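hi!! sorry for the late reply, been swamped w classes. u asked for the two structures so here they r. pasted raw, havent cleaned anything up. first the sequence of the first protein and right below it the tokens
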Amino acid sequence: MNNLSNISESYLKNLDSYIKELIVRFGSGTEDNIESMNHIELGYLGGNFGIKIKNKELFVSDIMNALEDMEEPPQEVKEYYPDITEREWQASTRLSTLNLLLSERLIILLFENLLKKSEKQIKPVDYNKNKIINNSMFFGNK
């Protein structure tokens, strides 16, 4: 288990808001991207840490794993990409799951770095209002 199991609930909420802000900034501040942040949260399930569906005992990576079990692409995907093969679909869903799991591990590393700083230095961010993040908190002063 990593050091994150010892962090306070308020600290986790503040870090959750920072991660959501970073995701929105990375993907762009579209209405869909911002709205999706209202349905996820960082949290623990059974001693494991990750991105989960808000207020539910369900990791987003578990949903992605379920998509991997679909041997054929859904009809909607076939309509966009009629030439996609089953193998290409399976590779795409697997890669999506691996990217999500990698993101969760990077979040853990980021959090562990932030834990070295005082909790008083971490302030909540309202990602819905696209406030500016002090990037030096994440990447150090330059």
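now the second protein. again sequence first, tokens right under
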Amino acid sequence: MTNLGKNTLSMLAIAALTMVASLAVLAPQFADAADGEEAKTSETLRKVTPEIAVPSLKEDGCTITMKMDKESYTAGEKPILTIEITNNTDKSIDKSINVSMSGRDLESRSRMPAMARVLWKDSRTVTLAAGESKTLTIETDTKVSDSQAISFNLGGNNERGNDDVVEKAVRVKN
């Protein structure tokens, strides 16, 4: 019995030393060091900034681009999207456009990252003559949250029957 107790205590001591050594080696050093971005204050952390400048989708002879009304958003603002559709063919076309806003919580309550869920979506159909361009302005009815990673998805229903999707990620600056 005494050997069993000594072995157990020895194993626990070795495990504790291994854990401390691992944490010392793998811990992030200087986590708040300057990395060329703005200083991390409560005001700058509340801004949400798009990562992709102008996403573009080409399908069925059309070019679809999505722009946002601002470079960054503060928590509580509702983004306004501008969708430009250009018919590059020599015939008239009815083009379906699907736009959605997805978000996932940054503060995960488990070991796994939070799953993204659709916060808002809209679908429009536009009739375009040959070579014509149209611009749609779509206001979301969902406010941007400072505790979520937000992305916008732009898709259309092409002739093959499947959706081509372009994603525009917007993140909280940190």
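hope this helps!! also noticed smth abt the second:
The chain is about 15% helix and 45% strand.
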